[in-house]
Specification:
5 strands, 6 helices, 5-stranded parallel sheet, alpha/beta
């Protein structure tokens, strides 16, 4: 799996911990790291989020992680890109359910909100599940719901 990651200055410390964790614990993940490279070279969320979104659109990444102060700005910008389904996640349950229920191919986290240890656990939870997994009894509903989201997206992104 190819995983793209980016942050702004507020998300930089958490993003670096996530990158370190992925390199140490997920050899199956190929990272596409869009930085920022250091606190001395900051870029705002509205510059960073499109890098990950476009990598997904071009097939250069399968999933993405974006980290800013709250995760909210990154999610707003990422969701402006066709084919990107970004969810803000602040805990293990929402991280896992972003994939299981919403088929999120991007998660966004808040560096001001989420401690590094929890952030890495959230990423692990999100990576460990598939769409509709653990919710097989609602698989048809969830699949139909996601297809409706894709239809809405096609109408809006003409």
């Amino acid at each position: 799996m190819k995983l793209a990651i980016a942050s702004d200055l507020s998300g930089y410390p958490l993003a670096r911990e996530i990158v370190k964790h992925l390199k140490e614990n997920h050899p199956e993940v190929e990272l596409v790291d869009f930085g920022i490279e250091s606190p001395d070279a900051p870029q705002p969320y509205f510059i960073q989020a499109p890098k990950v979104a476009r990598a997904l659109q071009k097939g250069e990444a399968d999933r993405g992680i974006l980290v800013c102060g709250t995760g909210q700005g990154m999610a707003i910008v990422a969701n402006k890109h066709k084919g990107v389904y970004a969810c803000v996640v602040d805990d293990l349950f929402s991280g896992e359910r972003a994939r299981i229920v919403n088929n999120a191919n991007v998660i966004t986290l808040g560096g001001w909100i989420t401690a590094p240890f929890l952030g890495t656990q959230i990423v692990d939870a999100w990576l460990s599940v598939a769409f509709t997994q653990k919710m097989e009894f609602k698989k048809d509903f969830l699949t139909n719901a996601f297809n409706k989201v894709v239809e809405l997206e096609a109408e809006q992104f003409k």
